[in-house]
Structure formats: C-alpha cells, structure tokens
Design a protein that fits this description.
heterodimer, A: alpha+beta, 3-stranded antiparallel β-sheet, two-stranded antiparallel sheet, 5 strands, 12% strand, B: mainly alpha
C-alpha cells in the first residue's frame, strides 16, 4: 500500500546489541544533546520572554481591557445610547445616562453622556461586539490584560478604569484595532 | 602534663574551628546547589531559571529558606509522632557527618602552626564513609514508615532496597582501589595521586561503577526511585512539609556534595592537579583544586539528572545485581591480577 506521507517508519522489535544494552553510548549521546542546549542558553539564546520587562506585541485581533475614548479635545465620546449593552451577549455592560449641564462641553462631546458606565470583567467574554455596535467609536478593546484581583467586586470596572486620560501621554492608541474593525466592517458590507 | 594540656586545648580549638568552617561550607554549597540545580535545569531546557531574587536570582536559596521556615509544619494524625520528627534530623545528621574524613588539602599554616585540612584522619576513612552512607537509609526508612502513608512506605522500601543493593557494587569498586593503593585512609589515597597520577587512569571501570552507584546512593535521577513524583507523589517525604521537608531535600544536596568530594578524592587525585602544587597560596591551592573538581562533579550529577529519565524499578534492580556487581567483581579480579603482575 502506498503511504500518504513518507514519514511512516517500520517498527522493528529487534534485540538490543551489546552497546545498546549497556546504555552508556545512548546516555552520552543524550548528554551531548542537553549540553548543546545548555551552552546555547549560556550564550543568551533562551526562548524565555522576561514578561513584565519585555512584552511581546499583541496581534491586532487581540481583545483585552476596554477603553472609553475621548475625542481630540478631550471630551468623552460616549453618549450612553446603550447599543453596546444591547449588543453584549454576556450582559456585562450597564450604564446610567445623564444630561450635560452648561459649562461641561469640554468634558462630554454631546448633550447626553454616561454618568455611570460599568463593565463586569468576570461576565465579559471579550467578544468585541460592543466596539462593533458603537456608533460613536467610543469603546474599544485594547491590548492591555485585565489584572487579577482578590474579590469579585474588584472586577466591576467603572469609568475610573475605563475612560482614558485627557493628557496626550495618557491617551491609549487604538489605531491598529480601529483599522482592523473598519476592514472587518467593509468586508462584511462587500460580501452582501 | 601542662604541655600536653596546652597541646590538646590548641588541638581542640583547631578542630572546632575546622569543623565549623567545614559545616558552614557544606551548608553553603548545599544551599547553592539547590540554586544551581534549578538554574542548570532551566539551561538544559532552554529556559532562564530563577532570576528575580537579586541579580541572576542569586538570593533564591535565601528566599527558599524563608519559605520553608514560614510554611505550616503539618503532621498527619496517624503518624508515629517521635519517629516522624526524628527522621529528617537523622538523615541530615548522617549527611553532615561524612565530610569529616575528606582531606580538603594538605596543610595550612596559620600563625606559624601547621593545620591539617582534615577533621579526622581515620585510617579506615573510606570504610567510615561507606558505613555512614548506609546509615543514611535509616532517615529515609524511618521517615517513610512513620508517615503512615502507603506512598511514603513504597518510596522508603524502594529507596532502602536500592541503596543496599548499590552499596554492594560501590564497596566492591572501592575494594579494587584499596587493593591498588594499599590503604583505606583517604588522606594517603589523596597523597599518593600526585600530579596527574590519578587512580581513574588505572581504574576506569571501577570509577564508572562507583559513579553510577553514588548516583543511586544519593537518590538522584536516573535512580530517584525514592521520590518518583509521577508514581509515588513525593516518595518517602510525601507527608512532610515546612523545614522537615527542607531538611530531607537539603540533606540530599549535602549527600551529593560529599559524594562528589569522595569521587574526586578517591579517583581524581583529590587536591592534586598537574602544575598546581597544593601547598601554594599558604596551602589554599589544595582546597581550591579540590573544590573545582567537586563543583565539576556536582554539575555532572545535575547534567545527568536533566538528561536521563528514571529507570523502572525492575530495571534498577537488574542493573544493580546482574550487571554492576559482576562487573565490580570482574574489576576486582583484574586489579588483583594487575597488582600481582606489576607489583604495584
């Protein structure tokens, strides 16, 4: 019978000869192999990534800790329309809407805003449907990992943990993710 | 009379200092063997190993010690109380005793008086070491039995049968060296192997048998039948926790250090190295050379552990009784013939 790949080997249950029976040759061969690995690591060629200091880049499809974006003037983009909460299959998102007062134009972009916006990170399945649902490009999943905690309450992230900072250095870059979502949407549209 | 008293007081102080220093070095080497083991294991597996505690993880043994001491000291209800407590101590005690007869160098000159670098020059040094290493079985046996756990008992039974079987081959391989050198004293053995005239060149087979047996005696892989994480959880120390467990593990590293030292002394010229007089640096050259050899052997021990998988129990017994003992006897006969013929 012709084999599908040429990787198959015939197994022969032959008796070991003297050199095989005393194991020593095989042991020395094995030790040579491990020594090569040892020397390689000694010269700094390890596969280990020293995690907190060195971080591997995430793939653009990676979905982690959410961010609520601000616009270029620093006002929150979210208008508390609730589409993300409706889209959420895990029902992890809750929010309370409020009306913008006079003099708060620099804080909130439109007349309505989310006074409370909470994502329960234990419920969240990081599917990314919220960012697809958002009409204001306000919520994005970023490449940050949600940290561990001791209590369940610690996983309910409020606006303090979700909204990005006003200062330019505290802004969170989502351009890669944004582009990825755009491409996905276009692909879906052209498919129709 | 007064001269005799003075002499003996000085003698006692000298020995006490020597013992303390030796004890400290033994513990230090054992502590850093644990670090070395983890580091080397990592290197052999393309990893980096512990590198968080201090630069290159150099403080890891300290952190391990703190961890061991602060863990809950659990004792099973059904354990035989006093034997359970005694076992780690007995194992540790025996492990620390062995270093007494190893000649670490020739002589140091401290304040004009020569100091022998050996705690006790027994004329039966090698017998003393073999005897104590067989006493080591008691720590494992008592620990495994008193835990009242079937896995511990299995581990203990395996360990003791293994150690007793391999002691035979070990003793026989040492006898060949004794026949050749004509002495049982480690000091004389080391002194005879000046320069590059090491016993291993005359006894390669004896060395091989001795080394394999010392792996088995130390319960190191590929002969770590006593622990066998995969089958017996932790073997004889399954039920131990906290510093009692620490004592068992620590004593194993001390055993490894001592058996490396014995291997270096009996087969690899002890403190001798061609071109390096052990009396250099005020006598410190000897210990430096010996320690270099000891560290090399400790490395080889670890190298073997992280290369070879564990033997099956029946393979272990097969190797010990059907291969090593006949080989050792053959080696003994060969040595006897050689001694008769060459008259050495």
């Amino acid at each position: 019978m012709q084999s599908l790949t040429n990787r198959s080997r015939n197994v022969v249950n032959k008796k070991m000869n003297f050199w095989e029976r005393i194991y020593l040759v095989a042991i020395l061969k094995g030790m040579w192999t491990t020594l090569k690995h040892f020397v390689r690591v000694m010269f700094g060629k390890s596969h280990t990534v020293r995690y907190p200091e060195v971080k591997r880049p995430f793939a653009p499809v990676w979905r982690g800790w959410h961010v609520l974006k601000r616009d270029e003037k620093g006002a929150e983009r979210c208008t508390a329309c609730g589409l993300c909460a409706v889209a959420c299959p895990a029902e992890a998102i809750t929010m309370t809407a409020a009306e913008r007062e006079k003099g708060e134009e620099h804080l909130y972009r439109e007349e309505k805003y989310a006074a409370v916006y909470e994502i329960n990170m234990l419920r969240c399945i990081f599917c990314g449907l919220c960012e697809e649902a958002c009409p204001k490009e306000a919520i994005f999943l970023t490449d940050r990992i949600v940290p561990s905690d001791y209590a369940r309450q610690g996983f309910v992230f409020g606006k303090d943990l979700l909204v990005e900072g006003v200062e330019p250095e505290k802004r969170i870059d989502v351009s890669v993710r944004q582009k990825h979502i755009q491409e996905k949407k276009w692909a879906a549209e052209t498919a129709h | 009379m007064s001269i005799l008293l003075l002499f003996s007081a000085g003698f006692i102080v000298e020995k006490i200092i020597l013992i303390s220093v030796l004890f400290a070095i033994t513990l230090g080497v054992a502590a850093y063997s644990t670090y070395g083991e983890r580091k080397f294991a990592a290197f052999f597996q393309d990893r980096l190993g512990p590198d968080r505690a201090g630069p290159w993880g150099i403080l890891q043994p300290l952190a391990d010690g703190v961890k061991m001491f602060t863990k809950e000291d659990f004792r099973p209800n059904e354990a035989e109380r006093w034997l359970y407590i005694l076992a780690p101590g007995a194992f540790m005690f025996v492990a620390c005793m062995t270093s007494a007869v190893i000649p670490w160098g020739t002589q140091l000159t401290v304040f004009g008086t020569p100091v022998d670098l050996q705690v006790a020059d027994l004329n039966i040094g090698i017998l003393y070491i073999l005897g104590l290493s067989s006493l080591g079985v008691y720590g494992i046996m008592i620990g495994g039995w008193s835990s009242n756990n079937k896995f511990s008992l299995y581990g203990a039974i395996r360990a003791s049968s293994q150690m007793i079987s391999y002691e035979l081959a070990m003793g026989l391989s040492v006898i060949a060296v004794v026949m050749m050198t004509g002495t049982l004293s480690l000091r004389e053995m080391a002194a005879q192997q000046t320069g590059f005239n090491w016993n291993v060149w005359y006894q390669p087979l004896g060395f091989l048998i001795f080394f394999i047996c010392s792996l088995a005696e130390c319960n190191r892989a590929p002969f770590d039948m006593a622990e066998c994480e995969t089958e017996l959880i932790g073997g004889y120390h399954t039920e131990y926790s906290s510093m009692k467990l620490g004592f068992f593990l620590f004593a194993e590293y001390i055993n490894m250090f001592i058996s490396s030292a014995v291997t270096a002394t009996v087969f690899f010229g002890g403190y001798n190295f061609p071109g390096l007089d052990p009396n250099w640096l005020g006598g410190f050259m000897g210990p430096i050379v010996l320690f270099a050899k000891v560290f090399f052997f400790i490395f080889v021990f670890m190298w073997i552990r992280w290369t070879i998988p564990r033997f099956r129990y029946d393979q272990l017994m097969h190797l010990g009784w059907k291969s090593l003992i006949p080989l050792a006897i053959f080696n003994m006969l060969l040595t006897g013939a050689g001694v008769l013929y060459f008259g050495k």
